Amino acid sequence: MLVTYVLAGSIILQLIASVIAFRLIRFTGRRVAWIAISFALFLMAIRRIIPFYRIVSGNQSIPPDITNEIVGLALSALMAIGVAGIAPIFTAFKRSEDILKKKAGESMEEFYKAFQASPAIMTISDMKDRRYVEVNKAFEEKTGYSRSEIVGRTMVEMKLWANSRELEEIDKEILSKGSIYNREHEFRMKDGRLITASLSVVAISFRGQPCALAVAEDRTERTLAERELNKKIKELEIFNKAAVDRELKMIELKKKIEELKLNPPG
Q1: pTM for this entry
Q2: Alpha helices in 159-219 (DSSP H)
Q3: Residues 101-152: pLDDT tens digits?
Q4: Cα separation of 128 and 30, whole Å?
Q5: Are 133 and 125 in contact (CB under 8 A)?
Q6: Domain limits of the chain?
Q7: Where are the extended beta strands (E) located within the chain?
Q8: Cβ distance 207 to 219 under 8 Å?
Q9: Contact criterion met (CB below 8 Å) for 170 and 212
Q10: What is the DSSP secondary structure assignment for residue 246, as one 8-state letter?
Q11: Rounded Cα gap, residues 47 and 66, in angstroms
């Protein structure tokens, strides 16, 4: 009678361990490994079912060894405890992974909203081939290009940079330093106009790929105003210099007149 209970206990524990091992597939992603472990535990249960069936059916031709079966029960218990103990670890890991993915998704959504709502011109490009991955609404409004015209095409193809050498230099600097800030460059719009923009670029990871986030502020009007101001300043300097020279000449002339009055010729 004792051996019957021992065999029954072993079978139940091994089947439980087999089911737990099979359920771990969805938490770990290791399909082949856990299927093999689950199947092995199931076969061990089948091995115990055979002598159990003989005893229940009254077939005593091959009497089971009670010592071996007790050892088998202990091993079954240890395997069930081991698999059951591992399961919560993988479950907790899976939950943490799901939470992180959810937070990452929420962060990406918030970033995208801010990216599109920004009044500054913003682009995201792949650092491998300079292919545009994303542009914001301010970019579309300022350049005249729609998102569908830009995304998927390279910077070289679009020819937005007025000076392609500057693009090469910035690429090298981003690769070596990871960022640049407030550099003035000229860019060509869709209608052929050139604008001057203050450009900042930083290396980021976007959708799992190394990318460059570029932020540009149109400074064309400010630059033109500065140029006009510098022009006026130079004109004023020239006028002042001419006025000063004229004043000096007048002083020199008055001095000579006074000298002639004091020392008239003859």
Answers
A1: 0.53
A2: 164-177
A3: 676 666 778 888 889 999 999 999 999 999 999 999 999 999 999 999 999 9
A4: 32
A5: yes
A6: 2-112, 130-222
A7: 121-126, 132-135, 179-188, 194-206, 209-218
A8: no
A9: no
A10: H
A11: 15
